[in-house]
Amino acid sequence: MYDLIIRNAQVFDGTGLPPVLSDVAVSNGRVAQIGHITDVAHETIDAQGLALMPGIVDLHTHYDAQVTWDRTMSPSPALGVTTAVIGNCGFGIAPCPAPLRETMLKNLSVVEGMDLNALLTGVNWEFESFGQYMDQLRRIGPYINTAVFAGHSVIRTAVMGADGSRHVEPSAEQLQTMQSMVSDAMDHGAIGFASSFSPNHSGYGGIPMPSTIASEAELRALTAILGEKKKGVFMMATGTRASPDIMESIVEDTGRPAYISTVLTMYNEGNPLLGATYYERCAQALERGHELYILTSCQPLSFDFSLTDPYVLLSHSAFDVVKTATADALPSIYRSAEFRDAFRKDLKQPKQGILFLGNWRHIEVGPTMRPENQKLEGQSIQALAEQQGQDPVDVFLDLALSEDLGTHFVGKFFNNNDEGVAPSLKHPASVITLSDAGAHLSYMCDAGFGLYFLSHWVRETGHFTLSEGIRKITSEPADRFRIPERGRLQVGLPADMLLFDPATVGISKPIPVQDLPGGGSRMVRTASGVHGVWVNGVKVHDGHNYVDHSQGPGQILDHFNA
């Protein structure tokens, strides 16, 4: 007798092959049979009209802290994810000597937009070393399969303390200790090494995150461990300093695949050809036999902001007065004709390198304060301006002022044009991921990137067939990161499965909830069209709610393909 039989499903194996109408049997956490099954099971599900696929593989998440208090790793399982990689960009919490715990969490709270009180209240410290952290994860039993990067900033902090954000050059002894920690992490099952040179990655109080000031020589000394071990992948938030040429040379030196993550690869109306040059340089590297890829987002990059903290607009000269103003002074500034005219002038001749170029279609109304304004949520400022016959600047400022500047807005400044984004999604150097799940909780939730891909890029725009779309978010990312057995629905492999309705699958708008330790709030999304998610044959979500497990079925992944 099988543990589970799902009958009459359109079964996609994750490799891009067409689906087959079939039954799928599960036993002992693995797929036991696919085909016409006459046997019985402890549980049988009739999936007539539904599709069954491998669970989504999310290579870019930040659940390092959250998993210590939340084994579900919410909201990812509810959104079809069955395998996640944490520790991206070199930010995490292990290894961490006990005296440095607060320093580590303060930096993490800023660079990844996490509630500091929730971190200080919620993180369960049962470890100091990387190996002890992995052991704790096994005791916790997460709901989804989890792999962990050895992180540059984490290790630099563990060795140098606060000096990791101040001193460019470590001592010879400190560098040797860092190398030893990378080696130790690899020996204890790290999936690879992650770092960041991004100037946008700042820590607590505006200090640079430790890895961002490190030298290229230090980076090469640490990535060299991957070459010595002959295993692991290298992930880098590159900024401009870690150019594709430098990344390719590290691939050549180590023999290990590397992955670029930077907003510079995203479609940007202000410089629409820039991202394409990154993909082309990676394509050239691949032709030379050097595995250099780009972690690619399939969603618009969203910035949540209000006019009490209009950080996305501060590069406009008109906002110079806002930078130094008190909160009490802001309403009068925003009401003044002088400020509004100066802002309009800025938008007519935008400076180079700014985020908002004046296209009001790319700023939408987010959560509002007053019930009568809820009907405006999700609409663009441009659409409202056309409806009201007013200038968008006035509509934007007047709405915020009517709610005492409490209105939230969502700016979609990158990846906001389908025809501009589609070529990157189809490029041989792209790997679809970059959800940042678990991070930037107060203003975004892109954990549902896979369901968005299936709804938008497959069903709505037709850029991908369903078979190919599934491959792009299952077997392809698993293969790229050398994760064995995952991302495929085949006999003998782990039963990581997503049952869904292709006609309705998708994600909701971000929804604010107050469920973090210490009473902190975050944004989550819910799924539509999802009928069940299984990890290693165990149901973790039924399409509506999490299934309660005192020990989750997810495995801590610590062995990877060469």
Core attributes:
TIM Barrel; eight-stranded parallel β-sheet; 2 domains; 562 residues; eight-stranded mixed β-sheet; alpha/beta
Radius of gyration: 24 Å
Question: What is the tally of beta strands?
Answer: 23
Q: Which CATH architecture of the largest domain? A: Alpha-Beta Barrel
Q: What would you call the shape?
A: globular
Output the CATH homologous superfamily of the largest domain. Answer: Metal-dependent hydrolases
Tell me the major beta sheet: 8 strands, mixed
Q: Quickly count the helices.
A: 17
Question: How much beta, percentage-wise?
Answer: 15-25%
Low-confidence stretches: none
The pLDDT mean sits at: 95
Structural class determined from secondary elements = alpha/beta
Distance between the termini: 36 Å
CATH C-level of the largest domain: Alpha Beta
Q: Could you name the CATH topology of the largest domain? A: TIM Barrel
Fraction of residues in H or I helices: 25-40%
Provide the domain count: 2
Write up this protein.
The protein has 562 residues and is of the alpha/beta class. The chain has 2 domains: 56-302 and 416-482, Metal-dependent hydrolases (TIM Barrel, Alpha-Beta Barrel), CATH 3.20.20; 306-411, no CATH class. The chain is 30% helix and 20% strand. It is built from 17 helices and 23 strands. The chain has helices at residues 101-111, 116-122, 130-140, 152-160, 172-187, 216-229, 244-254, 274-287, 320-323, 330-335, 337-348, 381-388, 392-402, 418-426, 449-460, 466-473, 475-480; strands at residues 2-11, 20-27, 30-35, 41-46, 51-54, 56-58, 81-86, 145-151, 192-196, 233-237, 258-261, 292-296, 301-305, 363-365, 409-414, 430-432, 497-500, 506-507, 511-513, 522-524, 527-528, 530-535, 538-541. Strands 1, 2, 3, 4, 5, 17, 22 and 23 form an 8-stranded mixed sheet that branches. Helix 7 links the parallel strand 10 (233-237) and strand 11 (258-261). Helix 4 crosses helix 5 (172-187), helix 12 crosses helix 13 (392-402) and helix 15 (449-460) packs antiparallel against helix 16 (466-473). It is globular, with a radius of gyration of 24 Å. The two termini are 36 Å apart. The model has no long low-confidence stretch (mean pLDDT 95).
